[in-house]
Amino acid sequence: MRRWNGWGDDAVEFALNDEALAFLAQRVGAGKPAADAGYEQACAQIQESRLPPHRLIDTSPEVRLRNALGQSLPDWLRLRYGVIGAAPDGVAYPESAQDVRDLLDYAQQFGVALIPQGGGTSVAGHLTAPAGLPSLTVNMTRMRQLLYLDTESQLATFGAGVLGPDLEAQLRARGYTLGHFPQSFEYSTLGGWVAARSSGQQSLRYGRIEQMFRGGSLETPSGTLHLPTFPASAAGPDLREIVLGSEGRLGILTEATVRVTPVPAYEAFHAVFFPDWRSAETAVRQIVQAGLSLSMLRLSNPLETTTMLALAGHKKLIGLLEGYLSLRGCKEGKCMLMIGVSGRKSLARTALREALALTLPQGGVHVGRYMGDKWKQNRFRNVYLRNAAWSHGYAIDTVETAVDWPRVEIMMRSVEAAANAALGAHGEQVHTYTHLSHLYAQGASVYTTFVYRLAGDYESDLARWKSLKKAVSMAIVENGGTISHQHGVGSDHAPYLAAEKGQLGISSLRALFEHVDPQGIMNPGKLLP
Amino acid sequence: MRRWNGWGDDAVEFALNDEALAFLAQRVGAGKPAADAGYEQACAQIQESRLPPHRLIDTSPEVRLRNALGQSLPDWLRLRYGVIGAAPDGVAYPESAQDVRDLLDYAQQFGVALIPQGGGTSVAGHLTAPAGLPSLTVNMTRMRQLLYLDTESQLATFGAGVLGPDLEAQLRARGYTLGHFPQSFEYSTLGGWVAARSSGQQSLRYGRIEQMFRGGSLETPSGTLHLPTFPASAAGPDLREIVLGSEGRLGILTEATVRVTPVPAYEAFHAVFFPDWRSAETAVRQIVQAGLSLSMLRLSNPLETTTMLALAGHKKLIGLLEGYLSLRGCKEGKCMLMIGVSGRKSLARTALREALALTLPQGGVHVGRYMGDKWKQNRFRNVYLRNAAWSHGYAIDTVETAVDWPRVEIMMRSVEAAANAALGAHGEQVHTYTHLSHLYAQGASVYTTFVYRLAGDYESDLARWKSLKKAVSMAIVENGGTISHQHGVGSDHAPYLAAEKGQLGISSLRALFEHVDPQGIMNPGKLLP
Question: pTM for this one?
Answer without folding.
Answer: 0.97
